[in-house]
Amino acid sequence: MLGALSVAVDYSMEFSGLKDLMSSLWAMAFPFLSFLKFDFDGVPIFCSTAFFGLTAGFLASVIMGLAIAIRASGLIGLVGAAMKALAEASTMVGAYLALVKARRARGLWLSLGPITRAAVMCLANLFVVPHLFQQPLAFVVGLMPLIAFFNIIQGSITTYLGMAVALAVVKRAPHLLPEDAPILRSTRVPA
User: What is the model's pTM?
Assistant: First the structure.
């Protein structure tokens, strides 16, 4: 269900122009990277990971990637959909580690999500851009700081906003969550 919510968020933001609005400063600063868009798509994916575990987060990422692929046009759109799914899934790996391992300084631990995302997406871009889009490797390497910066920002939006939503659910409706929810492991005080 949270995968479907992520799709609804993505389609709503895409077709309302909210992604373009959120990304306008980025597009003005880096017009050659204006295809990178900020959004809230990852918040339901984070919640699926926080409530049901890493597998649920991966599944929600795949569902969102497939939904983006349906509206995508051509190879560039399909690659973008796959890269978005990979970005969100990689964010969930770091965030999941924070959820199950952090006892203190959870905000600091949560930075593992954006850091993991940035590292994975830099590696993915080093492979995809030169091979599929015929760009020189030196050019792609030169883009790495900006690609990492974008992914740190987007990963932070996903992780920290997702954590705020997840904690609100824990506070107001913990009875709706499974007993072994990762978010509950990190919010319990050890006996």
Answer: 0.90
DSSP secondary structure of the chain: -HHHHHHHHHHHHHHHTHHHHHTHHHHHH-GGGTT----STHHHHHHHHHHH-HHHHHHHHHHHHHHHHHH--HHHHHHHHHHHHHHHHHHHHHHHHHHHH-SS-HHHHHTHHHHHHHHHHHHHHHHHHHHHS---HHHHHHHHHHHHHHHHHHHHIIIIIHHHHHHHHHHH-GGGS-TT-HHHHHHSPP-
Q: Categorize the per-residue pLDDT at 187 as very low, low, confident or very high, splitting at 50, 70 and 90.
A: low
Domains annotated on the chain, with CATH: 2-29+43-186 (1.10.1760.20)
Taking only the tens place, the pLDDT of each residue in 126-157 is: 999 999 889 999 999 999 999 999 999 999 99
* Cα atoms in the 13 Å half-sphere on the side-chain side of 17: 2
Task: Calculate the average pLDDT of the chain.
Answer: 91
Structure tokens at 23: 């990304």
Report how far residue 28's alpha carbon sits from residue 137's, in angstroms, rounded to the nearest whole number. 25
Q: How far apart are CA 174 and CA 187, in angstroms?
A: 11
Tell the burial category of 51 from Cβ atoms under 10 Å away from its Cβ (0-12, 13-18, 19+). Answer: buried
